Amino acid sequence: MADETTTLAGPHPPEPSLPPVRDWPAGPLVGTEFEPVLAELMREGPLTRIRLPHGEGWAWLATRHDDVKLITNDPRFSRAEASVRQVTRLAPHFAPRPGALAWADQPDHNRLRHAVSAAYTVSAVKRLRPRAQEMLDALVDDMVRAGSPADLIARVLEPFPISVVCEVMGVPLDERRKLHTWTREIISTAGGADAAELAKKGLFGWIGQAVRDRRDTEGAGDGESEDVLSLLGAAVRRGELGEEEAISVAGPLQIGGEAVTNNSGQMFYLLLTRPDLLERLRADPASRPAAIEELLRYIPHRAAVGLPRIATEDVDLGGVRISAGDAVYVSYLAANRDPAVFPDPDRIDLDRDAGAHVAFGNGPHFCTGAVFSRMQIELLIDTLLDRLPGLRLAVPADQVSFRQRTMIRGPLALPVAW
Ligand code: HEM
């Protein structure tokens, strides 16, 4: 790949056939505002070239809904190839674990995903729902008991997803406090990179032992409604998965609650700063499921872009040639603001059909936790709106601070009163 770069202020195309390479610096990001660099790239064309703060070279960026769907569903774009290259990226460090779902291509990806899929189906999540409601009620009880005002993130939006994840994973009750602490260290920006690394070591070590224990327990994971660790232990026992692979699959699933904390943090921030939206959802519970989809479409879930893919052969896309070996990013956030699919896309419109959004991705790498996340978000909206009819921000909106230098965006704290 050539390495010529321009800034957004001054494009100087290096070759007539290729768009210029744009530098995409990290942040700063404001509240729930759409990232301005991404908005500019979307205006420049359906396929642009970008260079992020870390890694090497440049990569293509696709922003249109139809291109994003095509690329993410086309085996000519490989994740496994990207895992062994230093593709230009947002994250300073890059150490993909062999066997991680996100970096696998077919047929490995199917094999890895199949091992845990039973725990995330619609019916499995339906079975989990009453227990999740109990856990949420207990957290809201505690918050109410401690009195108004309170930090909704610390009291509910962080501990709830971590607790539900422990339930799905099959973490024994007396081990949960330890896992809560590790998970919090990993997802919080407060303790720094070293603390997060140490916590990861602790968590992955614990998961490894848990998988081995279940592997050695005859019958564990062979039943119908099994937890993730038992399913993985059984898959290792049957020889379908290596032990390291099982750990690589389990790790992101254990930490995945972070996404719900931050996504619902942004959702409640939007609702609490937009009384028209909040009132509508309070008054009309039937409108909530569609409203959640519209908010998922609108929320800028992450900074910059996620994981890249590598083209394994030349692919022509809308008159542009992506050459074999080129790195390619898609932006699900940009696709969710494609005016061809969502007219007036920067407006939250609770009456639109947002069903075509790609907030959970698309294709084989579609989010494993999508049904599970929706269930948690529905419970959060129903429980907090119905139990606390006076719920409001306890500080002016501009005093809510948001995570910076982070992959997943969300408020650091959400002070509320009721
Ligand atoms: C609102 C919350 C969430 C959002 C918006 C979200 C979004 C996404 C997106 C956009 C992807 C990437 C698709 C791609 O690579 O092309 C993804 C992948 C993934 N998510 Fe989520 N996610 C959420 C919650 C969760 C939760 C709670 C879990 C775990 C229980 C989870 C586990 C995963 C895993 C394992 C992958 C990789 C799947 C694969 O590559 O096969 N996510 N998610």
From TrEMBL:
<dbReference type="InterPro" id="IPR001128">
    <property type="entry name" value="Cyt_P450"/>
</dbReference>
<dbReference type="InterPro" id="IPR036396">
    <property type="entry name" value="Cyt_P450_sf"/>
</dbReference>
<dbReference type="GO" id="GO:0016705">
    <property type="term" value="F:oxidoreductase activity, acting on paired donors, with incorporation or reduction of molecular oxygen"/>
</dbReference>
<protein>
    <submittedName>
        <fullName>Cytochrome P450</fullName>
    </submittedName>
</protein>
<dbReference type="InterPro" id="IPR002397">
    <property type="entry name" value="Cyt_P450_B"/>
</dbReference>
<dbReference type="GO" id="GO:0004497">
    <property type="term" value="F:monooxygenase activity"/>
</dbReference>
<feature type="region of interest" description="Disordered">
    <location>
        <begin position="1"/>
        <end position="24"/>
    </location>
</feature>
<dbReference type="GO" id="GO:0005506">
    <property type="term" value="F:iron ion binding"/>
</dbReference>
<comment type="similarity">
    <text>Belongs to the cytochrome P450 family.</text>
</comment>
<keyword id="KW-0479">Metal-binding</keyword>
<dbReference type="GO" id="GO:0020037">
    <property type="term" value="F:heme binding"/>
</dbReference>
<dbReference type="Pfam" id="PF00067">
    <property type="entry name" value="p450"/>
</dbReference>
<keyword id="KW-0349">Heme</keyword>
<keyword id="KW-0560">Oxidoreductase</keyword>
<keyword id="KW-0408">Iron</keyword>
<keyword id="KW-0503">Monooxygenase</keyword>
